[in-house]
Write the structure tokens for this entry.
Amino acid sequence: MFMSMLNHFSDDLAIDLGTANTCVFACGKGIVLSEPSIVALNAMSGRIEAVGNEAKEMLGRTPGNITAIRPMRDGVIADFDAAEKMLTHFMKKAQRHGGWLRPRVVIGVPSAITQVERRAVKDSAYRAKASEVHLVEEAMAAAIGAGMPITEAAGNMVVDVGGGTTDIAVISLAGIVYSRSVKVAGNALDDAIIAHARKAHNLLIGERTAELIKIEIGSAFPLSERVTMEVKGRHLSEGRPKTVTMDNEEVRGAMAEPLKGMMQAVLDALERVPPELSSDIYDRGITLTGGGALLRNLDERLRRETGLPVQLADDPLSSVVLGAGKMLSDFNLLRRVSIE
């Protein structure tokens, strides 16, 4: 009776600990938090100045004693202390009862994560006051969140395009038949735009500007009409602010290499799928999830490259955390799909 009361008041959480964004799902409440994976630290005191949205606003604008840090790189923890502080902040913010009960936590991680990296993620969650920590592959969680029939004896292919990694998986009978994680995703597209602005326009732009360019006029396949955008930055030779105009074709060309890497990873996966499952994928197609899947015409590009039907998940950005959230109320499924 006492344990059932504890479970009733417990705020079990599902977390998509992404390179670019962290989403948190609270049991019984749905998604309660979706913020950038950024921490602003005071280098002199070691104190957190801001986390998430507030910290993102500080990127490139902080005084010398404050550093804006991205604790995650390529889907895994790069800065252990900052990740722990960020997790603690987000978990406290997501809990209803002031955090006096330690929650069970399900966290989505890239399929290529090493044993050492898994331990780092788990340790960070335990230090952030989790009672239990279960890890699931992001592609599996994304497939569940997208409503794919992963328990059937048939092939389901999901491509989850995040900030740091693109995770590809073929799932059958609640198991992953094939999985691959490549470090080419949304951040690589941003980096390519920054490099292009420097090379083509002698213009230095920041991460936030590059991301905005990608969202506003970026595309993976030609658009029906020309779209332009005024881009502001610092001219490298003249050393003063300058504005240039970019269009969608120019930006698509800038992102050509990372986009080619994503497409090749999917084609490689299709070559390695067992023949019986290949026929299922031919009929069912590929499901695109992740924030990177929102890049315009990415589904059309993938459709042209593979010759297969491609559908975008209803809520691509939240697919991983929604899938992890479903496991909080289905322990049998969690036991089948979690990784140690």
